Amino acid sequence: MTGPQLLLRQLRREAEGIVSYEFVSASGAPLPAFTAGAHIDLHLPDALLRSYSLVNEPGERHRYVVAVDRAAGGRGGSAWMHSTPRPGDRLASSLPVNDFPLYEDAPLSIFIAGGIGITPFVSMAARLNTLGRAWRLHYSVRSRHRAAYVRELNALDRSGNAVNLHCTGEDMERPDIAAIVREAPAGSHLYCCGPSGMLDAFASACSGLPPQRVHLERFSASQEAATTGGYEVQLARSGKTLSVEAGKSLLDTLLDAGVPVQYSCSQGICGTCCMPVLEGTPDHRDDYLSNEEKAANQSIMVCCSGSLTQRLVLDV
């Protein structure tokens, strides 16, 4: 979805390793509206596409604010964002998309965040304050220096006890996710965004709750990408057949062969690299497709998934 051209107005250090970017419309027109929990995709050099949660308050049409953690071992998106953009630069973006919506009528919203996973909850807390709804936050970081947006969240905390900061590198315990879920009042909705270990613990603790009350957003994969190789991928439209070698992903094989592939997270989370499957059985490693969609074997996330059969035919 093509969105507006954005003009970078300012950068700000939010915490150790975390920088926020405030964008305005390059044309001066109001920006497309968004809801709490939404993200935008930014188009970076070398065909990189990266998704970032919108941190600012829903209803604001004059700016988009995102925050980026300097991640080690990534494909270059965070490194570029931390080293290159300066005020006055322009970037293309998608329209806002919300795969992590806030249920605004819940009597209580309980947020569990780890690291940069705090970003969607800043927007959600602001929205709930506007609605007069209650919320609680459990925020886990390695140190206080790594805790972004604590001042803003404390300012939003009307009860004075909604923000619970857990600095695990300062002899503080991690959030007891099982206890948080167990003690959640009836009817409350629970949200989690953070590293895969936290999300796995959250999903396990919430297994007995109605699924409509449980919400999670991943920014890292729950399993390793398929790199065993040893199969062929046939591209039905072009007629090309490529060999996927051991140690390489399907995405890398396609890119090395000059096949234009849109991708973003490279971890099977965002759905950007989804391709139709005509023949073969994918080795699904993503967290985007539902169990039913995986069982149908009609789509594959080429960034992380592979093939369980000797040949995989893609509608490309």
From TrEMBL:
It comes from Variovorax ureilyticus. Keywords: 2Fe-2S, Flavoprotein, Iron, Iron-sulfur, Metal-binding, Oxidoreductase. PROSITE patterns: 2FE2S_FER_1, 2FE2S_FER_2, FAD_FR. It is an enzyme of class 1 (oxidoreductase). InterPro entries: 2Fe-2S_ferredoxin-like_sf, 2Fe-2S_ferredoxin-type, 2Fe2S_fd_BS, Beta-grasp_dom_sf, FAD-bd_FR_type, FNR_nucleotide-bd, MRET, OxRdtase_FAD/NAD-bd. Residues 1-103 form the FAD-binding FR-type domain. GO terms for molecular function: oxidoreductase activity. Residues 231-316 form the 2Fe-2S ferredoxin-type domain. This is PDR/VanB family oxidoreductase. Its EC number is 1.-.-.-. PANTHER family: CARNITINE MONOOXYGENASE REDUCTASE SUBUNIT (PTHR47354:SF1), NADH OXIDOREDUCTASE HCR (PTHR47354). The lineage of its organism: Bacteria, Pseudomonadati, Pseudomonadota, Betaproteobacteria, Burkholderiales. It comes from the Bacteria. The keyword Oxidoreductase applies. It holds the Pfam family NAD_binding_1. Signal peptide: none annotated.
